[in-house]
Amino acid sequence: MGRLRISDDIVRHLSTFQRLGETVEVQLPTEVLPVGARTVLRALRTRAAAQLGVDWVWPYWLERQLDPRSSAFVPRGHLPFLANLTQRNWTMVGNVASAWEAVVDQRGLVTPWFDGWSLDWWVGADDRWHFPSREVSVRQRLVDDAPVVETVMRVPGGDAVERVYAVQEQEELVVVEFENASSLPFALALAVRPYNTEGLAVVERIQLVDRIVTVDGRPALMFPKAPARMAGSTFHDGDCVEIVTGGRAGTSLPEPLRCDAGLAQAAFLFPLAHQTTLRVAIPLVAERRTRRRRLARRRVQRMPELPAALPSSAAVARAWALQGRRGLRVEVPDARLASAVEANRRFLLLLHDGADITPGPSTYHRFWFRDAAFMLAALDRYGLHDEAAEVLGSYPDRQHLDGFFFSQRQEWDSNGAALWALGEHWRLTRDEDVLRATSQSVSRGVRWIDRKRRSKRRRPDPALEGLMPASISAEHLGPFDYYYWDDFWSLRGLLDGADLLEAAGDERAADRARDWGGALRADIERSLRVVAERLGQAVIPAGPRRRVDPAMIGSLVACYPLRLMAPDDPVLAATADVVRDQFCLGDAFFQSISHTGLGTYLTMQLALVELEAGDRRALDRLAWMLGAATPTFTWPEAIHPQLGGGCMGDGHHGWAAADFLSLVRNLLVREVDGGLALCTMLPESWLGGGIEVHDAPTHHGRLSFAVRWHGDRPALLWELEPHPGELPARLTAPGLDPAWSSSEPRGEALLGPAEAVGQ
Fold first, then answer.
1. Which of 70, 90, 412, 424 has the smallest set of CB atoms within 10 Å of its CB?
2. DSSP-derived 3-state class of residue 376
3. pLDDT at 414 over 70
4. Pairing between strand 701-710 and 691-698?
């Protein structure tokens, strides 16, 4: 520090920062260091280049953040960084059972490889060149609720249309289909750009080999025919857009086209007559460059071939319709909600990557037990059991010898999350194969929880006795500290572990796990009493050493999904009241810790607890969530409270999608003490409209039901197939007729008049 002239008063900023939470006495999670380094260095480079590249066409988010006339303008001040803080919204495309996804931004910019180059599209019409990242008249949607992203830009005489989707041919491809849906011909420029939805990418060399464009030695873009014209440039020579719009594009690229600043770009021009279509393809898996020295950027290992005929977007959308026939199927009066459900079922399948499931296609494209728990539960609740079982079957291989389910260091919620996911899968499926394959891991996992919570403390504190050590389990909770989040997940893990061990025939181990769970519950309750006395109010903060702050929303998991505390428990209810009264903006939860935005899955967390309590404000939060969705029914991790664009995390967030799906499912059917509640509460706009639920997995078996209306009276038809060896559950319908119940496995009933709805 001294050699760099960093004096003690500067160092104190760091030393006191460390003391905001518990002192980190163990190794930090090195798994996240590359992520942080990439983010910082990319943002540093983006700031430096963007302020000099005033003649460039930038991606939509950067165009807005650089434009002082835009409401999304972000002053940089003394900070040397520039990152996407206002439009973190994108949509993934991919293939089922594949580990790879491409992302499409709000203006049709396609990024096929993680942190890599992107394909932009420019249209030269009769009046001028049109750039989607700068145009106002651009709209986007999914084709038939499938992962087929259609972006439409208005041009003279009609529309220019781009559709992006993935196919599985000899290799996985992203197909980009362009249609001239106008009455006039136009020129289409396909631009290879050195940036993406996060910031600048590194593109040092571009080459056209026959009809294939290579980027840094990797096959990147395949054309069905040779382009009519092309242009290329480097950062120091300016953006090639000037060559294109100036009519100076030639018949070849500069040789060599290489940029030492890593900002090489090129555009390839095709004439497109009216009512015609052009399809190009991008390898979804980047070919590795040769490792031979001096040849890293010169030779391509293998040149792929473009299939003779690429499937159309309509054909791919029809193929995706088959996925909608699997598992739980719902029909509700709200057409937009129904489309959002169908789209997110399919998105969840894309985030299932074989033995992995990841909470995002881009920023968060890696596995965490915490995120996986919510996403696997949604897969199972929607009947997609094979995918859930494939991931759960990998859990023994993810476990350390000491019993720790490892996805990242210092995450003490992992074992509880893993055991709860296994338990929920068992309750919904009675899957004997997964039960047998994981029983030894379950036994080691519960033992690890009990040992970990008894590890030595740095200093004695009655509020910490018997609790899990300090951690960094979830970034939305805050810095390294003790968190009730870890304790609640661990307690649920012990209880579910006991049930799983009992189902596997190990009664002794099950009893031991239950005893450990009882001891942990007693320690949690004692800690909460001590903390309530310190705070002067009986609520559950984020941790024993924390005051009331937004992170206390994490403690609501004790009610849902973990069901450790009833929704009417005074302490739990008081905690929910504080969250609503102090930390919500309108119907959304505002997370000022880390995310600094309107939390998508965190708002759903509050709504799911309210649903358990019979609080109709859950419907308001569902309406907010649907209204906050992009036109392609995606959500980021957090949303800018003023602009409505994504401001944090992956722009297509899997946990948010999973919690949205779980809330809709639980509105229609949810587990309650002693049975199942159908239609717990209904939006007023649904009254008089038909509802159908087919093949819904539940803890009590597979349920189907339908609601029809006779005047103001709903008629309910149902059929429950109980799990083998179990008696039918008691059914109720609080949102239709609070007085009705039945224990018959199938039947029909004309319920009370609609005035009882919601009472």
1. 70
2. helix
3. yes
4. antiparallel
User: What is the C-alpha to C-alpha distance for residues 99 and 249, in angstroms, rounded to an integer?
Assistant: 38
- Residue among 289, 244, 283, 248 nearest 265 (CA): 244
pLDDT digits (tens, 9 = 90+) for 44-96: 999 999 999 999 999 999 999 999 999 999 998 888 999 999 999 999 999 99
Q: For residue 242, report the phi and psi dihedrals to the nearest 5 degrees.
A: -65, -35
Structure tokens that stand for 473 in this block: 């389990």
Q: Six-digit token pair at 610?
A: 């309210």
Q: How far are the Cα atoms of 97, 228, 635 from residue 271, in angstroms, in the given order?
A: 37, 7, 36
Quote the CA–CA distance of 168 and 374 in Å, as a whole number.
Answer: 29
How far is residue 170's CA from residue 421's CA, in Å, rounded to a whole number?
A: 35
**CA angle 424–426–428, rounded 5-degree value:** 70
Dihedral pair phi/psi, residue 130, rounded to 5°: -115, 130
In a 3-state reduction of DSSP, which class is residue 48?
A: helix
Distance CA 493, CA 447 (A): 10
Contact 286, 116 (CB under 8 A): yes
DSSP 97: T
Write b or e for each residue in 648-679: b if 16 or more Cβ atoms lie within 10 A of its Cβ, otherwise e: bbbbbbbbbbbbbbbbbbbbbbbbeeebbbbb
CB 287 within 8 A of CB 219: yes
Work out the end-to-end distance of the chain between its first and last CA atoms, rounded to an integer number of angstroms: 66
β-strands 669-672, 675-678 pairing: antiparallel
Write down the pLDDT at residue 17: 63
Angle at 452 between CA 447 and CA 457, to 5 degrees: 155
Residue 550, both tokens: 């937004």
Distance, in Å, from the CA atom of 699 to the CA atom of 665, rounded to the nearest integer, reads 13
3-state secondary structure of 296: coil
Take residue 143 and report the two structure tokens written for it: 């084709």
C-alpha distances out from residue 294 to 204, 215, 291, Å: 14, 16, 9
Helix axes of 507-535 and 432-453: crossing angle, nearest 10 degrees: 50
Kindly tell me if the per-residue pLDDT of 725 is higher than 50: yes
Separation between Cα atoms, residue 177 and residue 397, nearest integer Å: 41
pLDDT digits (tens, 9 = 90+) for 294-314: 444 445 556 788 888 899 999
Percentages (nearest 5) of helix, strand, coil residues in the chain: 35, 25, 40
Exposed (0-12), middle (13-18) or buried (19+): which is 387, by Cβ within 10 Å?
buried
Task: List Cα–Cα distances, 18 to 22, 479, 504, 537, 643, in angstroms.
Answer: 8, 9, 45, 28, 33
Contact indicator for 180, 273 with CB cutoff of 8 Å: yes
DSSP, collapsed to helix, strand or coil, labels residue 320 as helix
Nearby residues of 354 by Cβ (< 8 Å), 6 or more positions away: 97, 99, 390
Q: Could you please report the per-residue DSSP string of 417-477?
A: HHHHHHHHHHHHH--HHHHHHHHHHHHHHHHHHHHHHTSPPSS--TTTTTSPPPB---GGG
Question: Which structure tokens are listed for 461?
Answer: 């504190």
Q: What is the pTM of this model?
A: 0.95
Strand order in the sheet with 675-678: 669-672, 675-678, 730-733, 737-742
Cα separation, 203 vs 209, in Å, equals: 17
Report the phi/psi class of residue 644: left, alpha or beta, with left for phi > 0 and alpha for psi in -120 to 50.
left
pLDDT reported for residue 181: 98
- pLDDT tops 90 at residue 468: yes
- 306 against 317, higher pLDDT: 317
pLDDT of 459 > 90? The answer is no
Which tops the pLDDT comparison, 230 or 1?
Answer: 230
